[in-house]
C-alpha cells in the first residue's frame, strides 16, 4: 500500500486466509454471535475491538475467527440492524480524534512545525474520507471543522 503523504512505500500487510466457509471448530450459532456483538457495542467498543474480542475471547468460550463467514453479515451490518451503529464510521472518528489532539497540542506549542504538518495531513485525510462517505455513511451536508470534531468527541 502506498503512503498518502510520504515518498516511502508502505509495508505490506498480512492477508486473511482465502476461505469461504466457517471452520468446523467454530460452530457458534449466528444469533449468539449477533447478540454478543450488540452487547459489546453497548459497552462502548468500536467494531475493530469487537472483532478482536470475538476472535480472542469468543462467544461462550468458542472463538469466532470471522464474523462475516459465521453470520453471513459484516459486523457493521449487524450493528446497523440493531441500531447500535456509531454516528460516524470508526476510521473517520479516529482521524478526527487525532486532529483534535494535534490541534490542542499546537495551541500550546506553536513552534512545533513537524506536528503542524501532521495536523495538515490528518485534516486532509479527514476531508478525503468524508468525501468517500458523504451521502452513504454520513450526512450529505457534512463538512469537517475542528469545532464539530471536538464536540463529537466530547459527546462520547
UniProtKB/TrEMBL annotation:
Signal peptide: none
Amino acid composition bias (Basic residues), ranges on this chain: 1-10
PROSITE patterns per the UniProt record, alphabetical: RIBOSOMAL_S15
Pfam families: Ribosomal_S13_N, Ribosomal_S15
Domain of life (superkingdom): Archaea
Assembly, per entry: Part of the 30S ribosomal subunit.
Family under the similarity heading: Belongs to the universal ribosomal protein uS15 family.
Protein name (Swiss-Prot/TrEMBL): Small ribosomal subunit protein uS15
Amino acid at each position: 500500500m502506498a503512503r498518502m503523504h510520504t515518498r516511502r512505500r508502505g509495508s505490506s500487510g498480512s492477508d486473511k486466509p482465502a476461505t469461504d466457509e466457517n471452520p468446523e471448530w467454530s460452530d457458534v450459532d449466528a444469533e449468539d454471535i449477533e447478540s454478543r456483538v450488540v452487547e459489546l457495542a453497548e459497552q462502548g467498543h468500536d467494531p475493530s475491538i469487537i472483532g478482536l474480542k470475538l476472535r480472542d475471547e469468543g462467544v461462550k468460550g468458542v472463538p469466532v475467527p470471522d464474523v462475516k463467514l459465521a453470520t453471513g453479515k459484516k459486523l457493521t451490518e449487524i450493528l446497523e440492524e440493531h441500531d447500535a451503529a456509531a454516528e460516524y464510521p470508526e476510521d473517520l472518528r479516529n482521524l478526527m480524534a487525532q486532529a483534535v489532539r494535534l490541534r490542542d497540542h499546537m495551541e500550546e506549542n506553536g513552534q512545533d512545525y513537524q506536528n503542524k504538518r501532521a495536523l495538515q495531513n490528518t485534516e486532509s485525510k479527514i476531508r478525503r474520507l468524508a468525501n468517500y462517505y458523504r451521502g452513504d455513511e454520513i450526512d450529505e451536508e457534512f463538512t469537517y471543522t475542528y469545532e464539530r470534531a471536538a464536540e463529537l468527541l466530547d459527546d462520547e
